[in-house]
Amino acid sequence: MSSPAPTPRERFAALVRAPDHAIDLAEAALLIAAEAYPDLDVARYTNALDELADGARASLADAPSEAGRARTLVHYLSVERRFRGNQDNYYDKRNSFLNEVLDRRTGLPITLALVYMEVARRLDLPVHGVGFPGHFLAKYAGESDIIIDPFFGQILSEQDCAQRLQAVLGPDAQFDRRLLRAAAPKEILVRMLRNLKQVHIEARELESALADCQRILLVEPDLVPELRDRGLLYRQLECWAPALADLERFLALAPDDPTADAVRDQLIDIRSHARLLH
C-alpha cells in the first residue's frame, strides 16, 4: 500500500529545511498558496514562469549592457506583460499568492519582485530581492547595482531610495547602501508570510493567521516574536495548552521584551483556563 502524498505544509517544511542557496523560492511561494487553493497545480505556475522567461529571451539577448538588460526586463514585465502593483486594492490577500499574481498580473511589491527574480533566474540574470523598509524592491547585481521597483515598473536611483526611506521612517532617516543588500530566500519567505499574516489578522481569519505563524517558524524556528504571536493566536482560538507553551517559552527567551508584561497578564488568564481542563 503506497503512502499518501505529502501535504503542501509537509512539502514546504521539507523545502525550507534546505540551506538558502538550495531553496526554490517559486515552489515555496506556490506551496504557501496551495494551502488556500487546495487544487493548485504547482507545475502549471512554474511553467508559466518558464514561458515568461522564454518570451523575454530574444529581447534580452540584444541588450548591450547590464543597464540595458535591466531596462529590458522591466519593460518586458511591466509594459509588455503588464505586471504592476495593485494600487486599487493593496490589502487584497490574493496579492500575496504567487498563483494569483501570475494569473491577474498584479500583486504586492514582494510578490512582483519574486516574479522578476524567477524570470531573471531562468535567464541567468543576477536579479535579487531587496528587503527595503516599507516597500520590497529588486536589484540587478552587476558592476553597479541597478535598483528596480516592480510595483511601479521603475528603475530607481539612490536618491529615489533615500526619499522613499524618509517617506517611511521620517525626514531624519539616513540612507545607507546596506539597505539595498540582497535578501536571502528565507528572509523573503518570512516577509511574505508576515504580510499575509497581517492581512488574515485584520480580516479576523485567525486560523489562517495561525497557519502563517506556523510556517514562519518552519522557516526560522528561533524567531521569538513569532512564538509570541502564535501563542496569542492560540489564546484567541481557545487552544489553551499550546498558547501556554508558546508564551512561556517566549518569556523565557525574551523576558525584557517591551511586550513581556502584557504577555504575563495574558498568561494569568490562560493558566486559569488550562487548569479547568484538568
Structure summarized in a few sentences:
The chain has helices at 8-16, 25-34, 42-61, 66-80, 98-104, 109-122, 158-169, 185-202, 206-219, 224-236, 240-253, 260-276; strands at 84-85, 106-107, 127-130, 137-140, 146-149, 154-156.
Written description of the protein model:
The protein is α+β, with helices and mostly antiparallel strands and 278 residues long. It is built from 12 helices and 6 strands. The protein has helices at residues 8-16, 25-34, 42-61, 66-80, 98-104, 109-122, 158-169, 185-202, 206-219, 224-236, 240-253, 260-276, and strands at residues 84-85, 106-107, 127-130, 137-140, 146-149, 154-156. A 4-stranded antiparallel beta sheet has the order 3-4-5-6. A two-stranded parallel ribbon has the order 1-2. The model has no long low-confidence stretch (mean pLDDT 94).
